[in-house]
């Protein structure tokens, strides 16, 4: 088995932490039972473990290749994508009215995570397609929805997001691609887009590019950007495929990781299609000059999904390292042993695995809890409650994206270290996660971009209201942990104390941010990423603290499942080795003003 | 320019922090003037920048290749090695009586660092050769020294260290390679060695393998290991090369990084040489069964050198990222700007670069300070003083190895992040450092092995005496920083406060280790790597604090060199963003007992 979906942990988090029952009781989910959720998770695990996880290494060693006739993906990917489509997995998270299965995000989240863990490079194709479906469903015209969504949902076509140009990465104000309106209401698009994931491939019949471009008379900056649908093959009125559009893949990037995912340079309007002169044929979505706003619809979904990718790579790296540490015999035990022992017996290997496991399971729990709020924001009957849950979900998006992905780099790096010299040998497989994970804190908005969003829109805008509510929750759990009795009381108390310290650090950082952001914005943003990481570290610790309480309760009720003491051990390791980082982060945030002053004075 | 040797920082550290003057005044260095040191550094910089740094990327993209006729290294490496040999660089750190140049380690350290920064994969060949020269000079017979050392020093031959076997990595007790004594006093060696750096190549005429193996009647475990010289080509009495010995390279590893460095599987006694049956011809070094002890001679030198490799990769990654951040225009300034600005103006990019620079320059200063103690340990007239300096140097070796290499992984990862999406594209070059650096915390003893050495032999054995002396030094610098006046008083005070906190954290961790190591060894070693990292973080902060004081003094004396305010800014950034990590590490160390208890109870 190359990868096993951690289905017991998934179920535990859904039920004990993320209020699965509450979500299933929401209006609109009447037909979704806990049994159905279990069945979906089990079928998903089978699909991931048997169909796509075994292709993960092939994606790395036999990357997608450019050819004159289009990009050829890794052998096996096309068949796997067909299986994916036939399994209905693309439709799983989407509304029933669109033709999706209408399952809660809370159920879609573990499914997405597992597919990504099975094969990160493969899964980017459905991930981007999800974003396109989401954007079309929110802002597309009825005709656009009818034409484009069903084939995307069915996995016959796939989608891409076209933002980046060589001079315009994080700063979309610098976009140059042009769109000129034609008499028939369509547009002709010209320009060059880079870093287009699955910008060309052979896994589906058609590719629907969503492209940001400027009309000739558009305002400068981000307020002059419009969003267009540009299909690879034009679509006739009956839905059949017509002329090849003037969008071509000029080359693929040679990347550090996710080799199986073709990253394309796309040329629009280079005169190579069959659809006439003047550029690629595109169709405006919504209104002109509102493209960035629409793109953010895709982007927020994609950011959350990339956060799940972080959890996914972490889990896979963890499983790989844990298996090696259990098998590799090397060195006597510190306390004495008859001979060499499996390296997991050495305290530092246990520390590394525990840190990996805590970061992975903590980030997973935070992501699922966030998904639960997303479902409530969409389905609760009470409007004020919906708004409250929406604000909490949006608060979580940069945390899920930033914390899970930064953690995945650390987890994958520890995974290499656990393997010792073997970790540096590519055939071992640990190195692939280290390479693959490195893109996650970059794409769909770097960690700094997430941190800007977090501070500017999620902490400052509401005066810290949502954050304070979360901190109060942390304090409550900390108090429960410290008050716990029973055989695990000392462990729970320690977790409670470290969680309390973390909550205090978060509170102090929040106060600093709110107090200084107006008069010293640079000083505050010098601590932006530390602040985001502090929040993520504390939230993950909170969820692991709740896990420990739930596990202790299960043990108290007679559970003999090793899962429960293991969960407590993971929470203990995280509380000891990770939660106190919040102290360092808080200190860094509070020094922001002085740091910024010195950095600006210096000429470095 | 692909890489610039940071010669101003090197000189600053040598003079202001590492007591170059005191070292040059030692007996034995009468002929080494400060001017000579400058000339060596300048010539070295020229060699690095012009000869080997430009080959760094070729080493990555055109790795060494196995062939039936032996391993072929990257085009250009052979000529570069000849230039290296002709420049006398191999001899630089070695005693004049051996034919070396007899320069202080304090001067050899920046030279080694720079060569490694220029080309890490290339530099492994001289690094290993240094270790072989050192071992032969310490424990070889006069005949062995006379025969093998001169060609190694001249760069006509190179050397390797052969420890690892598939079942024996960190645990050398599990070694199986055999050595059988022959009537002529030589031995026949059989067995398989893996991970042999430059185990075969085409850059020199001969390769001298130092090989650990067991004689037939040797005791079990590490006390039954002997050390042998096994030349690739046997050496005739006149020094000319004779028959091809029965040691062959069976394959090269496919590695995550340092592709230019061939990592060989070597077969001894597979019957493929011209030197008869029964195994490769080898010559015992010193006495039987003392091989591990001798190997540690090489290993300590190699560990220190690998620490310098950490500094080297960090510096190179830093230069790459800083150049990109100064050029890449993206996004308006937070405080407002007329248009997009270079990304270095964004606070989080400045944070990343400052963290990279602080870790790099801090680790460099610690390494050079350690080298100064090494020189004093070897050259001081007073025996007690020599012993004191030797203990301090040995205390530093695991810190230099562990902290510099772990930091290099972080620095290289931040370097990718600074580049955004471009960092993930191999052609950009940032990804290579991220891949290359990853081996550094593994080879020549993983960070956990360094941490075991640190706690067991460097903290506990002397009851914490050396460490307490160092902590007292930190406290003194912290007091001086807090008492400083002048325009930079607030910055110096902040650095002083963070350094004081770090010293306190170290003191507390040390007390915990000493108090609990007897009764709860596993609990203490659960915090072994955190303890080593705490020490490294505090020591680097100490040296940066001293740097800030020296820079402020220079400014006070009228310096208008931007180097000085920049140095203060780096110290400020490190004090804010890195030093407070010591709080988290201390907390983790103190929780070790509970963590270990729970990990052992759990079945994970």
UniProtKB/TrEMBL annotation, chains A, B:
In this chain the Acyl-CoA dehydrogenase/oxidase N-terminal domain maps to 39-155
Q: Which UniProt keywords apply?
A: FAD, Flavoprotein, Oxidoreductase
Alphabetized Gene3D superfamilies for the sequence: Acyl-CoA dehydrogenase/oxidase, N-terminal domain, Butyryl-CoA Dehydrogenase, subunit A, domain 2, Butyryl-CoA Dehydrogenase, subunit A, domain 3
- Matching InterPro entries: Acyl-CoA_dh-like_C_dom, Acyl-CoA_Oxase/DH_mid-dom, Acyl-CoA_Oxase/DH_mid-dom_sf, AcylCo_DH-like_C, AcylCo_DH/oxidase_C, AcylCoA_DH/ox_N, AcylCoA_DH/ox_N_sf, AcylCoA_DH/oxidase_NM_dom_sf
Per its UniProt record, the required cofactor names are:
FAD
Q: Which reaction does it catalyse?
A: 3-(methylsulfanyl)propanoyl-CoA + oxidized [electron-transfer flavoprotein] + H(+) = 3-(methylsulfanyl)acryloyl-CoA + reduced [electron-transfer flavoprotein]
Q: What is this protein called?
A: 3-methylmercaptopropionyl-CoA dehydrogenase
Taxonomic lineage is: Bacteria, Pseudomonadati, Pseudomonadota, Betaproteobacteria, Burkholderiales
């Amino acid at each position: 088995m190359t990868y096993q979906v951690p289905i017991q942990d998934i179920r535990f988090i859904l039920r004990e932490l993320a209020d699965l029952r509450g979500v299933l009781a929401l209006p609109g989910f009447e037909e979704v039972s806990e049994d159905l959720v279990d069945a979906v998770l089990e079928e998903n695990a089978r699909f991931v473990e048997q169909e796509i996880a075994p292709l993960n290494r092939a994606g790395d060693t036999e990357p997608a290749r450019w050819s004159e006739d289009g990009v050829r993906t890794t052998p096996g990917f096309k068949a796997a994508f067909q299986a994916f489509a036939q399994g209905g997995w693309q439709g799983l998270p989407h509304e029933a009215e669109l033709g999706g299965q209408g399952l809660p995000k809370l159920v879609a989240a573990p499914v997405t995570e597992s597919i990504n863990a099975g094969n990160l490079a493969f899964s980017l194709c459905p991930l981007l397609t999800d974003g396109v479906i989401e954007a079309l469903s929110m802002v597309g015209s009825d005709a656009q929805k009818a034409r484009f969504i069903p084939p995307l949902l069915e996995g016959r076509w796939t989608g891409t997001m076209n933002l980046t140009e060589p001079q315009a990465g994080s700063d979309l104000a610098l976009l140059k691609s042009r769109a000129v309106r034609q008499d028939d209401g369509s547009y002709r698009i010209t320009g060059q887009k880079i870093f287009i994931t699955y910008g060309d491939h052979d896994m589906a019949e058609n590719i629907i590019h969503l492209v940001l471009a400027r009309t000739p008379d558009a305002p400068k900056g981000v307020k002059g950007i419009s969003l267009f649908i540009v299909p690879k093959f034009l679509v006739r009125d009956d839905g059949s495929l017509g002329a090849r559009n003037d969008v071509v893949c000029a080359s693929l990037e040679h990347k550090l990781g996710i080799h199986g995912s073709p990253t394309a340079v796309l040329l629009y309007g280079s005169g190579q299609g069959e659809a006439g002169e003047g550029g690629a044929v595109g169709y405006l979505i919504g209104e002109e000059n509102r493209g960035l706003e629409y793109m953010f619809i895709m982007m927020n979904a994609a950011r959350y999904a990339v956060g799940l990718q972080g959890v996914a790579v972490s889990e896979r790296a963890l499983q790989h390292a844990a298996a090696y540490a259990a098998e590799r015999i090397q060195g006597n035990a510190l306390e004495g042993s008859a001979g060499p022992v499996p390296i997991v017996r050495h305290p530092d290997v246990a520390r590394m695995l525990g840190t990996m496991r805590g970061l992975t399971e903590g980030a997973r729990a935070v992501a699922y809890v966030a998904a639960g709020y997303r479902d409530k924001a969409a389905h609760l009957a009470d409007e004020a409650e919906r708004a409250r849950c929406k604000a909490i979900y949006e608060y979580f998006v940069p945390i899920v994206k930033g914390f899970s992905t930064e953690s995945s780099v650390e987890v994958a790096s520890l995974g290499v270290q656990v393997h010792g010299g073997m970790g540096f040998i590519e055939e071992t497989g640990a190195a692939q996660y280290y390479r693959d994970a490195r893109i996650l804190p970059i794409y769909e908005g770097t960690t700094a971009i997430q941190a800007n969003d977090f501070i500017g829109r999620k902490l400052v805008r509401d005066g810290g209201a949502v954050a304070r509510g979360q901190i109060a929750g942390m304090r409550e759990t900390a108090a429960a942990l410290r008050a716990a009795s029973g055989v695990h009381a000392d462990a729970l108390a320690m977790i409670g104390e470290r969680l309390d310290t973390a909550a205090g650090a978060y509170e102090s950082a929040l106060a600093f941010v709110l107090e200084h952001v107006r008069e010293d914005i640079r000083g505050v943003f010098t601590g932006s990423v530390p602040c985001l990481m502090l929040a993520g570290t504390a939230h993950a610790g909170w969820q692991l603290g709740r896990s420990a309480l739930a596990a202790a309760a299960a043990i108290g009720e007679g559970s003999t499942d090793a899962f429960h003491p293991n969960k407590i051990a993971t929470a203990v390791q995280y509380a000891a080795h990770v939660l106190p980082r919040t102290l360092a982060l808080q200190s860094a945030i509070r020094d922001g003003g002085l740091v910024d002053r010195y950095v600006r004075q210096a000429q470095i």
